[in-house]
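W.,

You were right to be curious about this one. When I first looked at the sequence I had no strong expectations either way, so I just let the prediction run and decided to look at it fresh. Below is the sequence, 522 residues in total, followed by the output.
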Amino acid sequence: MADDVADTRPPPPSSHSVDAPGELKHNAIGFLDALVIGINATSPAYSLAAVIGAVVAIVGIYAPGVVLASFVPMLLIASAFYYLNHVDQDCGTTFSWVTRAMGPWAGWFGGWAIMMTGVLVVGSLADVAVGFGLLTLGLDSWAANDLIRQLLTVLVILVMTAICVIGTEASAHVQNVLILAQIASLLAFAVVAVYRVYTGTSPVGSVEPGVEWLNPFGAGGAALSAGLLLGVFMYWGWESAVNLTEEVKDSASAPGRAGIWSTIILLVTYLSVTIAVVAFAGPAYLAENASEEEFIFALLARQVMGGWDWLVLVAVCTSALASTQTTIIPASRTGLSMARRGALPSMFARIHPRFRTPDVSTWAVALVAIAWYLVVSRISENALFDSLTALSLLIAFYYALTGVACAVYYRRHLTDSARNFLLIGVGPLIGSVLLVWLLVQSVIDMSDPANSYSGVSWFGLGPPLVIGIGIVIMGLLIMFARRLTTPRFWSERRGVADPDVVRAMEHHHHKKPHGPTGPEES
């Protein structure tokens, strides 16, 4: 029976649609552009640089196995993104899908989590881009000057935000250039490192790679859980491709495929570089220098590349720079989607009349992120790292929520075929269970102040957990305020997938519908 509740979501654009006032620019980019944005949003070089030392310190030579194991929940959740995007091409992704499947309360909080991840991480990414950029230019004294570094960081955020507002095509062009520089530098680093291992010219304790390195359980269960938490952070961000669904050609299929392929390409990149780094430097050296965080690559660059170490510095700089831009995309598009359905104030739904991008939502995310960065930086650099640690809570939450929403929304069709049962039901649910387990582990670890970067206690808890709780409380206050003042969104009812859409999907019919695919009554 058809649902009698009006679907307030704008209909997905047809492949030949003409942009209407107040809509995003349709067909602005293609599959490859979306794929590049999905990869860049994870900031591969920065993620490796920030995490590799800590992972090796925890699990030793089994770091490649942890990287491989961390890929599993990401791929399973990417499958959920693909199938949910097929029936609902909404730039709000998790917010829109969870609202359809599980109701407005869960949907609102999923959207809030996505927006807050952008606020927490954008300043740190821009800061790293500035720091490594200055090191590349030999301006070490500037990099060590907090005032200069913070001013340049704010400038970088403003410039990258302006590019996001000017247009999705401009964003894609910038991303294409940055990803080429980044991947080329990483591959050069990995190849030279492995070459020096086998020629015996590594100046530190090199170790020849072995198949046993791929065993994620080699260091024990406790070490695995701690390593997986860092691994999830490495992969986070690939869904930016799906947030652009209303602006991508073949919106029912291409964004979801871009998300899945992003995770696969990241696996190959991360696995290759991790093996090269562990083999070249050895676990003992990496564990000793784990506290250097992202600067571990700077330490290794000179030893691996000699006078060409600037290639690695450029890789981390461009990685953080690209991710500064792409991380704004999910937050701003989610804000747009929430606003046009009444979950946030309507001003966030404004589309720039010329550039066809959500300018108000985009600038709002950037300005709040700048404020957060400046305030937290004033507390201490460790407090900035603590705010990034809090990301694992939000990431695990909204990824897990999306996996559950996929199985719930398709619940009447999971037994139609083995493919549906495994890829739409069991797979996403397993991914969600793994992420919930990681979420619980995070809360347990963060409750102990000794486990934080700063080592200080906020209200008897670790600062990352306090930040996470603060975000939840703020979200609850805003959500209840919206419920009292604007009840329209909260009347939406849960639904299930339209059988016609499911049948079309199963027959690989990827033509986009000309109107919304209304859910059936639950």
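Here's what jumped out at me. The two ends are 9 Å apart (CA to CA). And, maybe more interesting for your project: Strands lie at 495-496, 520-521.

Coffee later to discuss?

I.
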